Amino acid sequence: MGETWRGIYPITAFVHDALRKTAASGLPDGLSRSEQTLLTACDFWFVVNSGALEDQLKTDAISQLACAQEAFSRIGAVRIASTLRAAVAQLSRNYSPALVRKAAAHIEEALSRTEDRVDDLIARFAVENMDASSSPRTLDR
């Protein structure tokens, strides 16, 4: 089966940009857990789509993959979460730069064929976690 990248949807870029601005604003409360989940998922999805995962994982690969795995699990991207969980387990058993490179290549390849509709899941998670009683940028804490 060939690559099935659907590209980054405008909603994902919008959510990502809004969360980046919120994170950079220095608000006292910072990002809520839901906002951080979305930002982590968007950041990881952007890196994977750009083919830059190997470079991203040169520092603290296990922690980054574990955080991404949790974020994708929370938004409902169960296949991606499973792929990342397996990579964390493998790297936890036997860590080396060569294995990080191999894991990054495997993850990028696997995610290029995922049946998880990441952009749709990001949009749904954002809408479902909006706190109607607060400002439009605030997600349920």
What do you see in this structure?
The chain is an all-alpha fold. The chain has helices spanning about 10-25, 35-50, 55, 60-75, 80-95, 95-110, 120-130. The radius of gyration is 15 Å and the shape is globular. Mean pLDDT is about 85; it is low at about 1-5 and about 130-140.
Task: Summarize the model shown.
The chain is 67% helix and 0% strand. The protein has 141 residues and is mostly helical.
Question: What attributes does this structure have?
Answer:
mainly alpha; globular; disordered N terminus; 7 helices; disordered C terminus; 141 residues
Helix/strand structural class: mainly alpha
Identify the quaternary structure here.
single chain
> What would the average pLDDT be, to the nearest integer?
85
Residue windows where pLDDT falls under 50 for at least 5 positions: 1-6, 132-141
Helicity level: 55-70%
Number of helices: 7
Say how many strands there are: 0
SSE topology string: HHHHHHH
Q: What's the story with the biggest beta sheet?
A: none
Q: Outline, from the CA principal axes?
A: globular
Q: For the CA atoms, what is the radius of gyration?
A: 15 Å
What is the terminal-to-terminal distance?
A: 41 Å
Strand content: under 5%
